[in-house]
């Protein structure tokens, strides 16, 4: 299918699905994902009508650049939450809670799957259990950010939630890299400390360093222009450039030089928002520009979800175990750590629920897990199953958590009737 046609089909399907979901009061993220599933290879795509849907997974994968760029802008936006003025209030709590909830989720999933291994060793191996436990750390920053934006959520829960989601990527990367290194050593029979510890830590340091440099570069470039439009264009161009640079990967002696797109773009946003006096206005305008990009990202994500694993009952069972214990780990880890650090009751009661969505980062971990060979098939299928469930229901749960915490206020009658008022005024002219 022509790429332009694919893009138009994706965004139209997503927008139309939001109209269908509006009476149900579900987040737009969920509507976009469902739209992606419907136009994907497992639904409308099966009809073989090129132009109505994605006939093959290859047609979906051709749009992967959209997902890469979208994740870059998502991370850039989240970096804006690390303003020094805000970190003075929530920095300590966000760090403790971010680490705690990730590690507790990993431990509980590992424990549950290792017990399952002892009962059914032919179904899941120790190395598979270890990798799945590490993948459990990942939270989807895109879904969380979209819900916050859609409902203009503000409050103590949001102030803590967004920094935690940002930190989650760094914590998840470390945990996964160490766990995967151990699993790979068990699989191959050789322990490689460079791949277990050195490469992951080097990737984090290099990513943060590159992001900081690009943040300074962007700030300096912004001073060359007086026009807000040109400054916005420069911001978008530098984010694009940063996403491109993070695609570089090459060996250097015994180590591998690589970058995390999420960490790099997050650091870019962090440095930019703290040193550029015009950053707040530019970030706000950039957020408006990226709205259709984010819609495309979620439709494409929905189309990438493979539904074929529903035919395998054991995969479904393992997927359910993974979902239950990951959810328990995220909630309990966030609940107790937030409570111990002195967070308000409305925050520690609902924070864990807002951390459930899982998508892009987990998929990236799956790509790495494929190095384990055939044993990676089970890992990927369980992760995809969990992503399907979490992405469909996670945004809804996040929305409810924000409502209960008081960070989403009821829509006023004026806002509800704004469209009708504009139409009436236009007709009267």
Give the spatial strand order of the biggest sheet: 1-2
Span of the ends, CA to CA: 44 Å
pLDDT < 50 stretches: none
Radius of gyration from CA coordinates: 22 Å
At the first level of CATH, the class of the largest domain is Mainly Alpha
Q: How are helices and strands ordered from N to C?
A: HHHHHHHHHHEEHHHHHHHHH
Q: Give the CATH architecture of the largest domain.
A: Up-down Bundle
CATH-defined fold name of the largest domain: Na+/H+ antiporter like fold
Q: How helix-rich are the residues, as a percent range?
A: over 70%
Shape: globular
User: Which structural class should the secondary elements be placed in?
Assistant: mainly alpha
Tally of separate helices: 19
Q: Give the biggest sheet.
A: 2 strands, antiparallel
Overview of the structural elements:
- With 429 residues, this protein is mainly alpha-helical.
- It folds into two domains: 1-62, no CATH class; 63-414, Na+/H+ antiporter like fold (Up-down Bundle), CATH 1.20.1530.20.
- It has helices spanning 3-21, 28-39, 57-61, 64-79, 84-119, 126-135, 141-150, 156-188, 193-222, 228-245, 261-275, 279-289, 291-304, 313-340, 345-350, 360-369, 376-404, 413-416, 418-428, and strands at residues 250-252, 255-257.
- It has a two-stranded antiparallel ribbon with strand order 1-2.
- Strand 1 and strand 2 form a beta hairpin.
- The radius of gyration is 22 Å and the shape is globular.
Write the layout of secondary structure elements.
Layout: H1 3-21, H2 28-39, H3 57-61, H4 64-79, H5 84-119, H6 126-135, H7 141-150, H8 156-188, H9 193-222, H10 228-245, E1 250-252, E2 255-257, H11 261-275, H12 279-289, H13 291-304, H14 313-340, H15 345-350, H16 360-369, H17 376-404, H18 413-416, H19 418-428
Antiparallel strand pairs: 1-2
Helix pairs in contact: 1-2, 1-13, 2-13, 2-17, 4-10, 4-11, 4-13, 5-6, 5-8, 5-14, 6-8, 6-17, 7-8, 7-17, 8-9, 8-16, 9-10, 9-11, 10-12, 14-17, 16-17
